[in-house]
Design a protein that fits this description.
The structure holds two protein chains of two kinds. By secondary structure, chain A is of the alpha+beta class. Helices cover 28% and strands 34% of the residues of chain A. Chain A contains five helices and ten strands, in the order H-H-H-H-H-E-E-E-E-E-E-E-E-E-E. In chain A, helix 1 (3-17) packs across helix 3 and helix 2 packs across helix 4. By secondary structure, chain B is mainly alpha-helical. Chain B folds into two domains: 2-98, Orthogonal Bundle (Rna Polymerase Sigma Factor, Chain: A); 130-194, Arc Repressor Mutant, subunit A (Orthogonal Bundle), CATH 1.10.10.10. The longest helix of chain B has 25 residues, at 47-71. Classes of the chains: A alpha+beta, B mainly alpha.
Chain lengths: 221, 196
């Protein structure tokens, strides 16, 4: 780089603009990206000569824009930030089911599946029902999917570790941001069943206005 | 639903500003590599300081009803805006030493600690960067002695001739000429020293 060439270029630009033009934060960001409008570049050049401390900042910014430094934080730090921001994972269960020959096959969520011998709260308890359970102290949350009909039905039950029924547990079923339906546990700790079409559902679980978490349920045709 | 989004889009930002927790979580997942990478551009920070700065940036981004998120006008890349926030915070933290501690390299080494995956950052533009050169010159001028600075300003930016400057400063013409040449030589030497 020839110093005098650059100085002359700045002089030529400056001659067209003069002093006294305000530089905005937006100008600085655009300049760093080489997207500042031509007439503003002249003003910026002159401004930088008069404000070297800003020039230092833009130099660093410009280098970051060019090199795009990226680095993955440790899992511990990632989790710590989410905790600090109150955004820690609220996933209670991830269940993925696929319809195969009139049956529902568990693709994901096997670790939450409840065998018949341990089913404590069911409506039918038969082979036509899949039950998944998650624990969020002091509650057990059970997700029941009956598939003897098409489309299958979904209901929930809620109990404490002492096996006491929990009423007024709210299950808000949505697809993304779209509210689908809400069902509430009765005094037996069981909700009414609702038919569910194929799709990806997120179910927010709440008891006494306290959010316990979200169940992710996917039913694939 | 946000898992499909792999970069910071206006839609994602809108949902973050509305404090949609899933969107905020996705925003953290996408932006953390940019922010963490930017902090690592500064030398002399230990792991605790880096972790503190990293968390502080997110707190600042989300504080005051998402004020900083709302300040982004959309006429630059959001990543550039994030770099600017990182830079300001590091500057506050390190004081005037921040500039000396910035790593002037065009590539970064991957030094991730837990194998969560990381991309090598590479310079996009191998061509001479005229903007950077202009900025470098501005910084170099600031490091000159006052009299050198004055003469460079008068000559190059205000368009005075050496003879006129000599008259204004009440210096012999030869003195103005030699101060100007000495200043240029200093800047040239600094530049050559900084370049690989």
């Amino acid at each position: 780089m020839n110093i005098e060439t650059i100085l002359n270029r700045i002089r030529q630009n400056s001659a067209q603009t003069g002093k006294g033009n305000e530089i905005t934060e937006s100008d600085i960001l655009k300049f760093a990206e080489d997207r500042l409008e031509h007439h503003r570049v002249s003003i910026m050049n002159r401004y930088l000569v008069d404000h070297p401390e800003i020039a230092e900042e833009i130099q660093i910014l410009r280098r970051m824009v060019l090199t795009k430094p990226e680095m993955t934080p440790t899992a511990h730090l990632h989790t710590k930030v989410l905790d600090t921001l109150g955004l820690s994972s609220s996933g209670l269960m991830d269940i993925v089911l696929k319809k195969v020959g009139g049956m529902l096959k568990i693709i994901k969520g096997q670790d939450h599946a409840v065998t018949l011998s341990t089913q404590l709260v069911t409506r039918s308890g038969g082979d036509d029902e899949l039950i998944f359970q998650s624990e969020k102290s002091p509650y057990f949350i059970l997700c029941h999917i009956e598939h003897r009909d098409e489309p299958p039905s979904l209901y929930f039950s809620l109990k404490t570790k002492d096996n006491a029924h929990v009423n007024n547990g709210r299950f808000r079923v949505r697809k993304g941001e779209r509210h689908i339906f809400e069902i509430v546990t009765d005094k037996m700790g069981i909700t009414t069943p609702q038919s569910v079409e194929d799709g990806n559902y997120e179910i927010d679980v709440e008891v006494n206005k306290e959010k316990l978490g979200t169940i992710n349920l996917s039913i694939q045709g | 639903m946000y898992s499909q989004i792999d970069k910071i889009t206006p839609y994602l930002l809108k949902k973050v500003i509305q404090q949609d927790s899933l969107a905020m979580r996705r925003f953290v997942e996408i932006s953390e590599r940019i922010i963490y990478g930017a902090i690592h551009q500064f030398n002399g920070l230990d792991q605790h300081e880096i972790a503190d700065l990293f968390q502080t940036i997110y707190l600042k981004l989300f504080e005051d009803d998402m004020r900083r998120m709302k300040l982004w006008k959309g006429d630059s890349e959001f990543s550039t805006y994030l770099y600017r926030i990182v830079l300001n915070l590091v500057k506050d933290y390190l004081g005037s030493a921040y500039y000396q501690k910035f790593t002037r390299t065009d590539t970064m080494q991957d030094d991730r600690e837990d194998g969560r995956g990381s991309n090598q950052a590479v310079a996009d533009n191998p061509e001479p960067d005229f903007i950077l050169e202009t900025i470098e010159v501005a910084v170099l001028i600031s490091q000159l002695r006052d009299v050198e600075k004055t003469i460079i300003h008068y000559y190059y930016f205000d368009g005075y001739k050496e003879r006129e400057i000599a008259k204004m400063l009440d210096f012999p013409l030869n003195t103005v000429s030699s101060i100007k040449n000495r200043a240029l030589k200093k800047m040239r030497t600094h530049l050559e020293k900084d370049r690989p």
